[in-house]
Specification:
Strand content: 5-15%
Radius of gyration: 29 Å
Largest sheet: 5 strands, mixed
Number of strands: 19
Low-confidence stretches: 265-271
Structural class: alpha+beta
Shape: globular
Mean pLDDT: 88
Number of helices: 28
Length: 711
DNA sequence: GATGGTGGCACC
DNA sequence: AAACGGTGCCACCATC
């Protein structure tokens, strides 16, 4: 869709039902087939079509007609099935995307909850029942997250309830009247819904975001159908080795833990086989068991790393890392490899609150670094990885218009330049490594809203005072960054929304101020300080009892006499409220940055897809937030890369009005022998110089084979 | 035995 | 004055 709704000659509602060939519906475009196509020309004129010789031409022509707008709900799903049939629908209005953009970030939603609940009570699905449910739901403090399925959206926007009872029925046989009715209801209201949502999008100036997402849908469909080429051999080798190490470690660890922590008296040790037996009962994956054994608050890396000098703890941490890898990145991933040796994933373009793309089944956006070593390409192609360099910091610099920060992003080394300003290091004097690191840490932490305490807890600083000093100096050096973040925090917590550089919106559920707030706030502050002073802890921990009774019974503080039941309850409400607002402020600070980054990548993806489709020079295989993976034709690859680089950099420049340079990696990740120090190091297969038009295969020619240290 | 919540951790 | 933004998946564990 590229123009306003009313500009189309014709508008139709489209939906499909699918079959797995065994009497059930299918969610998998690779194995499933279209069983039924519903096309609504109007509320009353609805076609239910099978896809066969007689209907194929008609359906294809209609869906591919650029003068006909197709309204669908989650059309990415339908699109994949159509493409498998060589039908390439164009001009789409996706009502799910529209809803997701408009309500991005919305939390609790009663309509979704009611729709969920009412599914169990179809016979009485009338207004009275809705009201009944609604009043119950409203009394609850927590509800379901905002949902964007067709049922919830129709109910929310048009107050229409449709049944989904038939969804999983067999669509391949002759349809019952009830099935026909259901099939029609799925498309009957789509046009009306599209107009309602379009009006909402226009009200908030979200048309351009909607156009962008609509075009992106096509790119994601392609990526989902194509996937990324993987070397199963390399993956399995890696996995096997990890598994071997893990099992070895597991055996050792259990015995050592048993001996050092579990066993109370020595005499059991005389029977070594019994000892092994007992050790086997230990479950290293049980956080509960391990917490008890180590006597630790929790068994997270952060907590246990404090005892790293204990060899058993160190071993345990190593074990956990291996376990994670073996359990997560094995069959769940390799099982998805298709017959072409390609790994496919599913993407969602609008599910996230910030507009980032998410990946699932399996998630290809959170695979460990070694994943890149398994990526290859078709014989005539080369894998290419391109990512935006420091894009979030550049976004922060240009959106805030802080001259000094902008200057830093344009210098040779951003973090050194920042350190110079934060720590007042004179020009010409070298920037000490530790100061550079501190400035870097704070630059990353600030857009997340990290506090001084947070920085200490995560081990970036030794004391809260020092962390606070660096944060203060940072804001002093970059005053407009401070103003910018503060404005966004305010917009989120007071207006209830923030926008990114393209106008993408995120909404926030601002909590109602508790009635007790004004009455008790002064006293709350007093107690807050008292608790901090006398108990050395935060009031939140101090009051951390579910009931007043337990607070009185279990707390051994002298301060309890100061707190009546009324105050206890009021303080808890105040804490809760303040924490929620603080979280909204942090989200508000971060959203415009993260969302702008997402918008840049999405804009680039759309243009890149267009370029690559038209020229047939390669494909996009994956995108991980600020990076894009390609498989490009060997012929003329340098000129292709130049165009791609330019498209990506221009997309960023247009959006933030400042440079967004990219880094280019060409070729598989491989092990290479350094010519000078003779050490093996890892690098991409090809050396490429875009200025001099040079491309060299390091595996056959060693001209550029120098490791980082010897360059 | 399925389901949902939680803790933990991989990535940007 | 509270204590790091955004994801998805695993094992465990309580619950039905």
């Amino acid at each position: 869709m590229r123009k306003s709704l009313s500009e189309y000659k014709k508008i139709i509602g489209v939906d499909i039902e699918t079959t797995d060939g065994k009497g059930k519906g299918s969610l998998d475009p690779f194995t499933g087939k279209i069983a039924l196509i519903q096309i609504a020309h109007s509320n009353k004129n609805i076609e239910l079509l099978r896809l066969n010789r007689e209907t194929y031409r008609y359906i294809k022509d209609l869906l591919e007609d650029p003068e006909v707008l197709k309204i669908g709900h989650n059309f990415k799903f339908d699109m994949k099935f159509f493409i498998k049939e060589n039908i390439y629908p164009t001009e789409i209005f996706d009502t799910m995307i529209a809803s997701e953009i408009y309500y991005a970030g919305a939390g609790v939603d009663y309509v979704s909850e009611v729709v969920e609940a009412i599914k169990k009570d179809y016979e009485r699905a009338d207004e009275v029942l809705f009201e009944e449910y609604l009043s119950t739901m409203r009394k609850r403090t927590k509800g379901t997250r905002f949902q964007h399925n067709l049922q919830a959206v129709l109910k929310r926007e048009l107050n229409i309830f449709i049944s989904k009872e038939m969804q999983t029925s067999d669509w391949s046989k002759e349809l019952t009247p009830a099935q026909q009715e259901y099939a029609k209801s799925d498309v009957k209201y789509l046009e009306q819904l599209a107009f309602a949502l379009w009006k909402k999008l226009k009200d908030k100036n979200l048309e351009n975001i909607f156009f962008l997402e609509t075009q992106l849908m096509e790119v994601l469909v392609f990526m989902e159908l194509t996937g990324v080429k993987i070397s199963r051999e390399i993956w399995e080798k890696r996995l096997k080795e990890t598994e071997r190490k893990m099992l070895e470690l597991e055996k050792e660890l259990k015995l050592e833990i048993y001996r050092n922590y579990v066993k109370k008296n020595d005499n059991v040790g005389l029977f070594s086989d019994l000892e092994e037996e007992l050790a086997r009962n230990i479950n290293l994956n049980s956080a509960l068991q391990m917490r008890k054994i180590f006597g630790s608050e929790n068994v997270s890396k952060l907590t246990l790393e404090k005892q790293k000098d204990n060899p058993i703890i160190e071993k345990f941490l190593h074990y956990k890392q291996l376990m994670k890898e073996v359990s997560t990145y094995s069959e769940g991933y390799l099982g998805k490899l298709n017959k072409y040796g390609r790994l496919t994933s599913e993407y969602s373009q609008t599910k996230t609150a910030t507009g980032r793309i998410s990946s699932s089944n399996p998630n290809l956006q959170n695979v460990p670094g070694w994943f890149k070593y398994t990526i290859s390409a078709e014989p005539n192609r080369i894998p290419v990885f391109i990512d935006y360099s420091q894009v979030e910091l550049r976004i922060l610099a240009y959106l805030s218009q802080d001259e000094s920060f902008i200057e830093s992003t344009n210098s040779e080394d951003l973090h050194s330049a920042n350190a110079r300003k934060v720590f007042n290091i004179p020009e010409g004097a070298p920037v000490p490594k530790d100061l550079r690191k501190k400035a870097k840490t704070v630059s990353f932490a600030i857009p997340y809203g990290t506090s001084a305490l947070g920085l200490v807890q995560r081990g970036f600083f030794d004391t809260q005072e020092e962390a606070q000093r660096v944060i203060d100096s940072f804001y002093e050096a970059f005053p407009k960054v401070k103003t910018f973040l503060e404005e966004n925090a305010k917009s989120a917590s007071e207006l209830g929304y923030t926008r990114d550089a393209l106008g993408r919106i995120r909404v926030y559920d601002i909590p109602e101020k508790p009635k007790e707030y004004d009455k008790y706030y002064e006293e709350y502050k007093l107690i807050y300080n008292l608790v901090k002073e006398k108990e050395g802890k935060n009031i939140r921990n101090f009051l951390d009892y579910p009931t007043y009774k337990e607070f009185i019974e279990k707390s051994n503080s002298e301060l309890i006499s100061l707190i009546t039941e009324d105050k206890f309850k009021a303080f808890k409400k105040i804490i809760n409220y303040r924490m929620t607002v603080a979280a909204i402020r942090r989200e508000g600070q971060n959203h415009p940055i993260q969302a702008t980054s997402a918008s840049i990548t999405k804009t680039a993806l759309v243009r890149l897809f267009d370029y690559l489709t038209k020229t047939n020079r390669g494909i996009i295989t994956l995108s991980v937030h600020d990076s894009i993976f390609f498989e490009l034709d060997k012929d003329d690859i340098i000129s292709t890369i130049k165009v791609i680089k330019n498209i990506m950099e221009e997309a960023g420049r247009e959006i933030i009005k400042g440079p967004t340079p990219v880094d280019v990696e060409v070729g598989k990740k491989v092990e290479i022998l350094c010519k000078k120090c003779k050490q093996i190091y890892s690098d991409n297969q090809y050396y490429v110089d875009l200025e001099k038009d040079i491309i060299v295969d390091k595996l056959t020619q060693d001209t550029y084979n120098y490791c980082e240290n010897c360059k």
